[in-house]
Amino acid sequence: MACGQCSTGGCGSIIGLPQDKSNHINTAGCRSAGGCSSGGCTKMNSFDWLSHMHIPTVEKFPIVEVKFKGGRKEYFKNTHSLELYTGDFVVCEMPTGYHIGSVSMQGELVRLQLAKKSIKEEDELPVLHRLATEKDLEKHTQAINRDLPAMYRTREICKDLKLNLKLSEVEFQSDNSKATFYYSADDRVDFRELIKMLAGEFKVRIEMRQISLRQEAGRIGGLGSCGRELCCSTWLTDFKTIPTAAARYQNLSLNPAKLSGQCGRLKCCLNYELETYIDAIKDIPNVDRPLQTEKGDATLQKTDIFRRIMWFSYPNETNWYPIPCAQVSEIQRMNLVGRKPLGLENLMEITDAELTKPISINNDLERLDRKYHNKKKPNKKPNNLRPENQQQNKGPKPEPKPNVQPTNKAPQATEGAPNPERRNKKRKKNRNNQNRPEKPS
To answer: Which of 332, 366, 400 is the last residue of a domain?
Structure first.
């Protein structure tokens, strides 16, 4: 969206005029010079990839797409054959007066958009009057500056009248002759008294337009749980109903806090992959009762749709057994005849090595115990400092001397006779052990 149409009042960037590029004005807003990350300046933009291509046609398509505040787009006939470019500000015909918007798309792509929205070329469409001048843009900026104070004042009036409605946005027409108030409400609201008070307050024609909660979230904007900007505020224009069955088909937990978006309704992204899941579920058996085995009845715990694996468990066990869907269908046919397999342990024929082991609730704790408690501490000493290798580092061992007994030595004692030298050594050892202090326990 062009800066003059941003919901924040514009980015403070320079708006060049088509006729004279030197003339410009500055608008109030977030002052980011066209690079704001709130999505206001590029809200609901469509890339016109045919804008700079020469298409050999007889004449250019006469209908132009124009964007207004809040991402609203309308189509106008270019009866005056104006030379337009994407981003140019044009004065558009309205039922009461005129309004200024920016050109968002033209050419053959507009023909495709009209067919998508079931609009025929022969239908009566409003007309583009001219390119906006500097005076028109100044008046348009003054109308934008009235939006925010008017919304705050209207909320005070609704509070005084005790009306059960939520006012989300106010849009003044560029000629200051009409104001559109966008609101959302759960029940029917009688705002006849409110229209009288607003007409006397702002001296303009009042139009109350009710929008859905999804449209309100798209106008306000924000970030979703995925961390990105809301789809309804960036590119999504058609809001389809999202049933609760969409979450069931995708095996999602039916938790309203996780499935609801900013608007309080089910997230629109639940429909993105729904058809893929429906096609994948066709070949998966419907398990409406436990599988009967000789070991006991096995209950379904989880289904991996795309890998076609179903996890079963016994009532008195914490292990989960992965069984292919083909084998589950075979077991169901056996149960119908009255036959039962021995157990699920012998049926696991899955190529993935990790899935061949049953899943246990305490698997993570056991894995951590094995990782940290059963791990041997590495020996930080190098091999050359180990005690068994220290003798090798001292060099080669000297050759042992020959055991030559002197001639004057007493003959050795025979077997069974006491040896006086051994007895003396034993006495010295016992004496030393008695004098040694005891070690503290």
So the answer is: 366
